[in-house]
Amino acid sequence: MTVTEYAVWGMFGGFAVEGLEFAAAIRRTGTWPWRLRGEPGPLALVVSVIIRLAVGAVLAVACGTTGQISGPFGALAVGIAAPVLVERIARHASVTGLADIVEGEPLKDEERTVEARASHPPERVGTGGRDGR
Question: Are 79 and 12 in contact (CB under 8 A)?
C-alpha cells in the first residue's frame, strides 16, 4: 500500500466513528445537536472531526510505513482506535520515562522499572475489615 492509501483508510476509520457519534447525537437530541443549549456549535464539531481524521491518517501512515500494519483493514482499525492509541502511547511514555530521552540520557532498564513502580504503587489487598483494609 502507498502512504496515501494508508492515510485515506485511516481517515475513513476516524470518519466512521465520528459519523456514528454524530448520528447518536441527532437521535439523542432529536435535532441538529448545535441547536440545543450546552452542545458545541457546528464550527467546533467540524474542527474536532478534522483533528480526528488527521490523527487517524497520521497514525495509519506511521503504522503502515513501519510495518506495524499491512493492509486496508489495519489502517482502518488504526483510524478507528486513534484516540485510544494516542492516550496509551502518551501514558506509556510518561511511565517508562521516555521524556528523559529528550532531556538527556535515556533511563537504564533497572531505573525505568524502579520509576514505574514508584509512580504506580501496588494496591493493598483487603483483609475483610469494615473499611476494606
Answer: yes
As a whole number, mean pLDDT of residues 31-38 equals 91
Q: Where are the domains of the chain?
A: 3-119
In 2-129, where does DSSP find H-type helix? Answer: 3-29, 42-65, 72-96, 99-103, 109-119
Dihedral-angle region of residue 128 (phi above 0 means left; psi in -120 to 50 means alpha; beta otherwise)? left
What pLDDT shows up at residue 26? 94
For 69-98, write each residue's pLDDT tens digit.
Answer: 999 999 999 999 999 999 998 888 776 655
CA–CA separation, 121 and 126 (whole Å): 15
Nearest to 49 by CA among 18, 8, 23: 18
Q: Which of 8, 16, 12 is nearest to 61 (CA)?
A: 8
